[in-house]
Structure formats: C-alpha cells, structure tokens
Amino acid sequence: MLYELNVNLDNRSYPIKIGYDLLMEAGKILFKEGLKGNCLVIADNNTSIFYDELRSSLDSNNINSTLTVVDSGENSKSLGQLKKLYSHCIKAKLDRQSFIIALGGGVIGDLAGYVSATYLRGIDFIQIPTSLLAMVDSAVGGKTGVNLDEGKNLVGSFHQPKLVLSDLKTLKSLPNREFIAGMAEVIKYGIIYDKNLFSRIEESFNEITAKNENSSLLAEIIGRCCEIKAEIVSKDEKENDLRAILNFGHTVGHAIENKSGYSSSMIHGEAISIGMVFAAEVSCTCFDLSMDDVNRIKKILTNVGLPICYKSLGWNELKEVINIDKKTVNGKAHFVLASKIGDVSIGHVVDDEILENTWNKINE
Question: Is 296 a catalytic residue?
C-alpha cells in the first residue's frame, strides 16, 4: 500500500487506499471492512476487463458478485440507464446487506453511486476508480447522480462510499487522451488549494505518466489530491460553502460538455481545462489574480496537452446552459474565482458583459 488516508465524516467516515495490484487484494480488504454477501459490479465496456481479477479476489473471500456492463461515456448517466440498473439489482438478489461496486471512471462512479443511494432507500457501495480523474476527484466525496437533457448532474444525491480502492495499475489501460484529461482535475487542486502542488506539476509534468507503474511521483500526486479532497469534504460534506471551491472552472466546463452533446469531441477534463482558463481570466478582470498567474495556468494546461479555448461555441449558446446550472441562484451564476494560485473564493456574481467579453477573448 502506497497511501492510506481517511475521509472523516463521523459514522460515514471511510478509508481511501492507493497502491499497485490492489484488485488482487480487494476481496480481503472488503471482508476486513465488514462487507459480505451479494454484490453487483457495475462497469463499462472498457473497464469490464478488470472484472475477472476482481471476481477471483471476491470469490476467494466468499463474496458473490454479478457483473453488469453499460456503454462507456457520459450518455450512460441517464434516467433510462438508471431504470435498467435497478432491474439488474433485483436479478442479482441484492438486499439491504448487499453492496454495489463501481468499477470504472467518473461516469460509472456517479451512476453506480446513485443506484446504491436509491435502491432499497440506500445500500453500501465501493468505489474502485480506474481513471486518473476518478481517483483524484469523483470517487472521493460522495457526489452521485445522472444527467438530464437540460444539464449535467441535475438529479443526484450525496451518498458516501464505504471504501475507495485505487489500483494504479489500472491507469496503464487508459488511452493517453483520457489520462491527460484527468490532469485537469489534478491541476485544479493546485490552483484552488495548494500552490506547492501546482509548482511541483510545473516542474515535473513530463514525468507524470501512467506507463511506469513504479512511478512514485504519480502515486504522490494522486495521494496529495485525495488528501485535499478528503480535507475539504470532511469540513463541508454537502457543499454549503468550502466544498464549492472544487467547482473552479466547472460552471463553463459543464456547459461546454452539454453543448457538445457529451460526445467524444470534448471530454470532461478537456472542458474543465477551458473552464479554468475562463475562470482565471475573469479572476484577473474582476478579482485579484495577476496576469502572471493567468499565464502560468494557461501554460501548465498547455504543457500537459490540454485545450485552453473552444471556438466552436458562442457565449449565448453556453449561457443557456449556465442559467440552469446547479450553482445558479436566482438566475445568476455564482463563480469560483482566484486571488492567487492556491487561494480561491466562492459566490462571485459577474456582470454578463464581462463574461461574454472574456469568452470572446480566450477564443480570439
């Protein structure tokens, strides 16, 4: 085990375990956590390749598992897919002592988490994230949900997992584009909370890779991101104040995803990268962020291979979606803005003209 930390939420506290070959130990770890009986493993058609190794470990610890596979991609986070998964829960004979395992990236974690939050009014679930983005962000914190046609994650629940188990070896199967997209969330932690993490990535971005399973730097960075997320969630589980800083870049990022049809033309981390550039530029115009810091943010995103503009959409198209975003209050979007790298604040309402001019500026 390379890292082990805890999300402290009283009786909903849970461990995060990070290491190599943890799938081989999953059954033993789950048994020690008191999980037993029937479980439903939800994966997509990319991550189902890990099931045989997981099942072997579960079988050897008397945990009976059933696999169900959904299509990969954001479109699976739908009400229609949700209904199908409830039927799979019944077929797998899940009861209130049973549990669900999310074996995949952020989409699978959100979807499986919401199924477990609502089936039989709530059963346990385990996060086994297989993407960088999920390991550092979506698998930690208990946000679950599905999308509506009108916007992302508009239906959901806070439902904490019993355990997060991150096997870094699974990252080797990721397409390079997906790994790079996950770096957007890693960089976000540096911007919102930890200037030293940001500097470390600036200095070492060429060494951060999933291809070397002995990469202590990768393990260290994932561990640090989880520590930050755990600290924030422990202080503010349901996003009443502090946790909202995790939305830096997400208001515009989610709108880009929506208007792109949740398609492969613009995946989550890429959209968030553009959203963070937008938020940085607005922070410079309306708040205290220096242009030097704006340029550092743009440079680090470019260096890791992420986009910083998106000329295919006009501001009026994005505004339609932003106006029904979860973070909109009384028809006004509330933005997370930065005063410097490592320090942000929430609740900023920005004049529409500034928002439109900023979008046009980054897409010149």
Answer: no
The CATH number that applies at residue 95 is 3.40.50.1970
247 catalytic, yes or no?
yes
DSSP, res 138:
I
Of 17, 77, 143, 224, catalytic: 143
**Known catalytic residue: 84?**
no
Catalytic residue among 243, 259, 298, 334: 243
189 and 320 assigned to the same domain: yes
Is 143 part of the annotated catalytic residue set? Answer: yes
Distance in angstroms (rounded) separating the CA atoms of residues 3 and 226: 10
Is the separation of the CB atoms in 322 and 255 below 8 Å? yes
Sort residue 205 into left (φ over 0), alpha (ψ -120 to 50) or beta: alpha
In percent, how much of the chain has pLDDT > 90? 86
Task: For residue 228, tell me if it sits in a domain.
Answer: no
Which residues of the chain fall below pLDDT 70?
Answer: 1, 211-215, 325-327
pLDDT in tens, 24-37: 999 999 999 999 88
358 within a domain of the structure (yes/no): yes
Quick one: 128 and 184 in the same domain? no
Q: Which domain holds residue 101?
A: 3-173
The enclosing domain of 254 has a CATH number of 1.20.1090.10
334 catalytic, yes or no?
no
Marked catalytic residue, from 152, 162, 188, 229: 229
End-to-end alpha-carbon separation of the chain, Å?
47
Contact 355, 282 (CB under 8 A): yes
- Catalytic site residue 250? yes
The catalytic residue among 121, 206, 238, 330 is: 121
DSSP 348: E
Are residue 109 and residue 196 in the same domain, yes or no?
A: no
Helix/strand/coil percent split, the chain, to 5: 50, 20, 25
User: What is the distance between the alpha carbons of residues 100 and 117, in angstroms, rounded to a whole number?
Assistant: 10
Verify that 262 and 278 share a domain, yes or no: yes
The residue from 254, 298, 327, 334 that is catalytic is: 254
Closest CA to 57 of 21, 104, 19: 21
Q: Which of 159, 250, 298, 334 is catalytic?
A: 250
Q: Which of 178, 185, 257, 270 is catalytic?
A: 185
Domain count, the chain: 2
On whether both 185 and 100 belong to a single domain, the answer is no
